[in-house]
Amino acid sequence: MRAGLVLAMALLISGCVRLIPESDGPRGPVATTPPPPVVTPIPPTSPAATSALMAGVRQGPIVSGLGYSQGDAEAALRSFIESCPSLLRREDTTGLTRREDWRAACEAAPRNPGTADTFFAAYFESAIIGSGEAFATGYFEPEIRGSRTRRPGFETPVYALPDDLERGWTNDIPESERTGRPPLGRRDLNGEYVRYYERKEIEEGALAGRVPVIAWVADPVEFFFLQIQGSGRLITPEGEVMRIGYAGQNGREYVGIGGVMRERGLLGEGPGKYAGSMQGIMQYIRENPAEGRDLMQLNKSWIFFRELTGDGPLGSLGIPVRRESSVAVDPRFVPYGAPVWLDLDRDEADGLWIAQDTGGAIKGANRFDTFWGAGDDARTIAGGMSGRGQALILLPRGTVARLNNR
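^ thats the sequence. predicted structure below, dont judge the formating
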């Protein structure tokens, strides 16, 4: 998934991947119910906003009045507990919170103060970032046919991270423009730094015999979509399940083929058009193999993988993401590990989520990518997820007042 990168289905389509430990220890503070705050209408978030503070932060409604279910709260609490070591260790790039702000909630969470729903009401307040107008897509963990060894019917390689992948500046980039982190690339035979091989070159054998192969897959189309998701499960003919996850990327440009298809008039309603979902895009590629191959090769990005052990694909925090609990966010606007409340026109995505991941298309305030696990239902839900509504970020109590009184 995205240990550093999780690519949501929005990348593809837009063109832009609960048990609570009990304890006899001290219980947390008793949640009170203050009067609902007056929420000032907020203008749409400025496209120029590059952080939550620039977008604007306002007090939201009281957490106890959000109406989430006990099961929803229990699932979110389990994921929050898994996120706490990171919350207490990492700097919050949003500028909203300090590591110490999370300590009380993180120390109380494993002790299960009351029921899960009262835990969130006791330790958190809601905040509206920018306008609060949310857009959410979905991602999942694909399952495709694979093999640890090359055999008939399994001819597409799953490459490990190459040892010649490095960062540097190509000669065509002037010194005055060399700011930030250099792009990924490699050294050619003359020692000159050049861009790394793109998808078409890799598919034509540029890495054959030079880069370790950790597995082989049966269907290159399915593998293309797995690369967009950033992780997945390979099911061998013997029934073994091999979980693979993101190890790195070739540094080349990502092109969302769904956006290209939309520009070409291939997606939509009517004769000869395909559904604007993962399923519709895949149908077009299957029915038009030559054009489909060329379309996929427009996406120059290539993902390298490693085998994962553990009970789930890893998100950007380096911990497993969980079905219907983990959500990918832009970490400039939502602190990693923070609870998120979504109220969308897609009811299945309503409720509490924990920010544990990010992705190439997940940019800006109130942009989310919900995780739906593995299996056919996860594929269907994630592939068609496109929800709009309202979002709240749950922050440690007192945070909004501190920010607005600086």
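The first strand starts at residue 57 and ends at 59.
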